[in-house]
Design a protein that fits this description.
With about 650 residues, the chain is an alpha+beta fold. Helix content is about 55%, strand content about 10%. Helix 3 (about 75-80) packs across helix 4, helix 20 (about 460-480) runs parallel beside helix 22 and helix 20 packs antiparallel against helix 27. It is an enzyme of class 2 (transferase).
Length: about 650
């Protein structure tokens, strides 16, 4: 409908933009000057802590210096409450005490019809709420108690119950004078194809009201109580009020909470949203039985720049996340994205909160993956990437996804990020392969008799080597810049486990990063497991550089000590391996010198660790192992008729 000339000017002149905006923000008293109408606040359209949102009340305009949102009172109401233009005008006209111009008869008739439909929906909500208190709802109430829902939660979300009666709601509404056609049009009853009497659409189900952005009831969701029900969850059909592809459960309260800075979380179902809200995550919404649509994505981006997608931790949930990536890539714009909260396998947010409380959920939120990272994981999962053609195939698939991004700047950054991930992964795989190859070559060389000899027995201690390597990696994760001091030594080291070699490769590639940034690079390339393992090791927890994370000198001492120990151990092993081959030829003079030299180097490393016991807590265990090996060496030398170089 058209508005008469001057109506909008009169509306704007009657309104205080500061009052309209003040319903949604907290003014910054230090920056604001109310007398001059110069008001500042954190922006309600994007999450921020500083007051970059400016309102000029005298001119009637607002502008955000962060997200560049701008407009007048009408645009503010439209954007903040997700309304159409005329709806926003109506809201402001009521506030200003102005009478809306008369609509044309057909438009007014349509508006009145929608109003009656909403009244029918509200009556249905009240009816089902009352039914929850009846004897027929005993099983439903027991179920809700088991799920942890108290009376306050039931009232807050207006949860009700639809009994098994075929025409319970229908007859209740008809008794209040509601026409049958209106009950069917609202989606509350279904009309049989044969033209018979209408019957309730929701029967034997817990009922969840669905409301629009203004808090008006537009539909219902029902959870079946019978295991053999046709569908576990049932939503209202499409009606003049309800389109499930354009709606979100808990939309209005979540939008308000997101405007106050809470993270916007997208869960899978009603119970997940309720559990999140009860745990303090009030900006929680859910799609309504379908995958997230383009329209819902737009709704989410109006509330937050980076909504958090927290779908169930099963194959179906992960598949839904992957489909959402494909939907989102072409729609990405600067400052608008998604992050993914990966739930533990077999758990949804409700399960997680009941098991671990809000802290468990917050930990997952803090570690949410950006969309580019989940795209990388999806494309590399289960793929073998050791050969050139395999790597080329991966790069071709990634290029196809990047090409789907319409925004050229975002396309550039996605391309750069994915190429960096590919480079780091290929480098780590190649490094691990080289280490395995050298180790395999060393193991293939010795004869069977040599492997069984006292020399091989004396040189074997994989536990000690693994502990030293773990100390090196842990120290470097806390102080990545130390890698530059020992880079050549680290690259020449023969790591005892491929996982250690791979992690070392990532660290060396990002040695200029901060500790937090380095850990994120590790997560991006190798996942969380390597970090969790190192963080959980008791023998590392007692070391000084771990007890005092900021003590760089302590970390350097531990790093150098562990390196010297490993280098001495590996040098000793190499000399012994070569010396074994000489035993058969009785090259006693050369053998004596090499054994003495190797034993002396090893002994010095052990003695140095004993001297550093106060700064290197694992040294005591290392020294004990060293003494055991030393005894074996002494016995070996005695058997060969040689003397200990220290005697």
């Amino acid at each position: 409908m058209s508005l008469p000339p001057g109506f909008l000017d009169e509306l704007r002149s009657r309104l205080s933009l500061a009052q309209v905006v003040g319903r949604k923000v907290m003014w910054d008293s230090r920056k604001s000057n109310q007398a001059k109408g110069d008001m500042w606040a954190p922006c309600p359209f994007h999450q921020e802590k500083t007051a970059s949102f400016h309102v000029d009340d005298r001119k009637g305009f607002y502008y955000c210096f962060g997200c560049h949102a701008k407009g007048d009172a009408i645009s503010f109401v439209r954007e903040s409450e997700n309304l159409g233009f005329m709806e926003a005008v109506e809201v402001l006209a009521r506030e200003a005490g102005m009478q809306m111009p008369a609509r044309d008869p057909r438009a007014q008739e349509k508006a009145d019809h929608l109003t009656r439909l909403r009244e029918v929906m509200e009556a249905a909500v009240r009816h089902y709420r009352m039914q929850l208190a009846t004897g027929a709802a005993a099983e439903a109430r027991e179920y809700l108690v088991r799920r942890g829902l108290d009376e306050d939660t039931l009232a807050r979300f207006e949860i009700g119950y639809a009994p098994e009666a075929r025409r319970g709601l229908y007859e209740a509404l008809r008794g209040r004078g509601v026409e049958e056609a209106m009950i069917v049009e609202a989606g509350l009853a279904a009309q049989p194809d044969d033209g018979g009497a209408a019957y309730d659409r929701f029967r034997g189900r817990i009922v969840f009201p669905i409301r629009d952005g203004q808090g008006r009831a537009i539909g219902l969701g029902g959870r079946a109580m019978r295991a053999d029900a046709r569908a576990k969850y049932l939503n209202s059909p499409a009606t003049p009020l309800f389109d499930k592809s354009r709606s979100l459960y808990n939309l209005a309260p979540a939008r308000e909470a997101a405007g106050k800075g809470q993270p916007l979380i997208v869960a899978e179902g009603y119970m997940d949203v309720i559990a999140l809200v009860r745990a303090g995550f009030e900006a929680a919404v859910a799609p309504l039985g379908t995958a997230i649509t383009e329209e819902q994505l737009d709704l989410l981006w109006r509330m937050a720049d980076e909504p958090l997608i927290a779908l169930d931790g099963d194959r179906a949930g992960l598949s839904a996340a992957h489909r959402l990536i494909d939907l989102t890539l072409p729609r990405l714009t600067a400052g608008k994205g998604l992050r993914f909260v990966l739930m533990p396998p077999g758990q949804d947010p409700d399960d997680l909160l009941r098991a671990g409380g809000p802290a468990a959920m917050q930990k997952l939120i803090d570690g949410a993956l950006p969309m580019v990272q989940l795209l990388w994981q999806r494309e590399t999962e289960g793929r073998i990437l050791t050969e050139p053609d395999q790597r080329a195939a991966l790069e071709a698939d990634l290029a196809a996804h990047i090409a789907a991004i319409n925004d050229k700047n975002i396309r550039f950054h996605y391309d750069r990020k994915l190429k960096d991930l590919a480079f780091q992964t290929f480098r780590a795989l190649d490094g691990a392969a080289r280490k395995r190859g050298r180790k395999a070559g060393a193991l293939d060389g010795p004869r069977l008799s040599t492997q069984r000899s006292l020399l091989s027995a004396a040189s074997s201690d994989s536990t000690m080597e693994r502990c030293q390597e773990e100390a090196i990696l842990s120290a470097l994760l806390l102080h990545p810049s130390l890698a530059a001091e020992v880079e050549a030594r680290l690259e020449s080291l023969e790591w005892s486990e491929p996982e250690h070699a791979t992690l070392a490769g990532v660290i060396l590639s990002h040695q200029e990063a901060s500790p937090d940034a380095l850990r994120q690079h590790v997560r991006d390339i190798l996942g969380e497991a390597p970090l969790e393992r190192l963080d959980s090791l008791d023998h590392l927890a007692v070391m000084p550089f771990r007890r005092r994370p900021g003590d760089r000198d302590s970390a350097r001492l531990a790093l150098v000590s562990a390196l010297e120990r490993l280098e001495a151990e590996q040098g000793h092993r190499m000399e012994l391996s070569e010396a074994e081959e000489d035993i058969a030829g009785l090259a006693t003079e050369t053998l004596t010198w090499r054994l003495r030299d190797a034993a002396e180097a090893r002994h010095r490393a052990g003695r140095a660790m004993q001297e550093d016991r106060t700064d290197y807590d694992i040294a005591e265990n290392g020294a004990r192992i060293s003494r055991q090996e030393r005894e074996a060496m002494l016995k070996m030398l005695a058997d060969l008729g040689l003397s200990d170089p220290e005697r």
